[in-house]
Amino acid sequence: MLINNKRGIVEIFGFIFLVLLLFFLNSFFFQDKTCKDDTLANQCSVNKPYFCEKKILVERASVCGCSSGMTLKEDSCISDLQTEPEEISLKYILRGEEKYLSFITYNGLKDYFFDLPSSINYQNNKLGPSRQDFKLRNINEKEQKKLLLPLVVQIQNIAESKTDQVRIAVSLVQNIPFGISNKTISFGKNEINYSRYPYEVLLEMQGVCGEKSELLAFLLKELGYEVVLFYYPVENHEVVGIKCPEKYSLDKTGYCFIETTSSSIISDSKGSYFGNGKLSSIYEIIPISNGDSLGKNLYEYQDAQSWRKINNLLEKKGSLNWFRNLKFTNLKKKYGL
Fold it and tell me: Is residue 68 part of a domain?
């Protein structure tokens, strides 16, 4: 009997040792070592000059090279437009915590953007360029992309998950002040307000709905998501749409509504916006990029519904009970509303 007991104890300890050994081997050899853009460990990202080192994207131009038109300088890639640097602080709110991200902008791009043609020449299209053509031109501008990618990489490096990358990008753009450019351009015989490129929204730290929506569309596109713009012609208002489960999307389009002029919850399309009130006109969907979809379990979906129900109740009754007021206060803090 004693021998059997000892044998049983040895087997138990042997089993525990085996489990611990397997756990250690799995943690050491099979843990996820990829970076937040899915670049494998110790490999170059598709976006030069970034290299995946210890799950963080770092500049390694000496290994990964530079994009066309950029000059190699040690481990960085430099553009001729990177003059007059200025550090800006970008505010974002994640789960109720206010944080800031530092980013270097370059005023050397101001003249570059202002000198770009304001029109698009279409020789083979009698109808002329579409709104989508102008949007894609602004979002995909090559020199701009080179100097905006470092912001995308910063977002990827600080986020704990791919979904948090979206949350940070959305809040960051929403917290840039609303403002119209004081520059004008000639369009035919008329003078019209100058429309900023996405990078210029950061240079001037302000933008209108279309400009801020283009900036967010760029960020979400580079983060790998499927993106559209929703344009409301009657209100002359523009917002971003990101691929999401149809259940939570705007009118079952498959894209969740994201307001950019001020803080709001992803998928909440029932708010009132700068000078427009609630949006009610028929909108145009402008495709921007293909890519990933938001998941089906985001807490924003339920929070947006709760926020709308509480606001509707407040409009009708003028006050809230203790429980709903607490929920209202918590949601305001969570999203900076």
Answer: yes
Cα dihedral sign, 151-294-308-302: negative
In this structure, are residues 63 and 45 in contact, taking their beta carbons and an 8 Å threshold? no
Q: What is the pLDDT of residues 85-101, one digit of tens each?
A: 999 999 999 999 999 99
Residue 330 included in any domain: yes
Which domain does 98 fall in, by range?
79-335
b/e code 312-329 from CB counts within 10 Å (16+ = b): eeeeeeeebeeebeebbe
pTM (2 d.p.): 0.87
Tokens of 259: 């307001």
Reported as a single tens digit per residue, the pLDDT across 26-78 is 444 445 579 989 999 999 999 999 999 999 999 999 999 999 999 999 899 99
For residue 327, give the H/E element and its range. helix 322-335
Q: Which of 155, 127, 140 is nearest to 37 (CA)?
A: 155
Residue 196 and residue 86: Cα distance in Å, rounded? Answer: 18
Q: Residue 40: CA atoms inside 13 Å, Cβ hemisphere, count?
A: 2
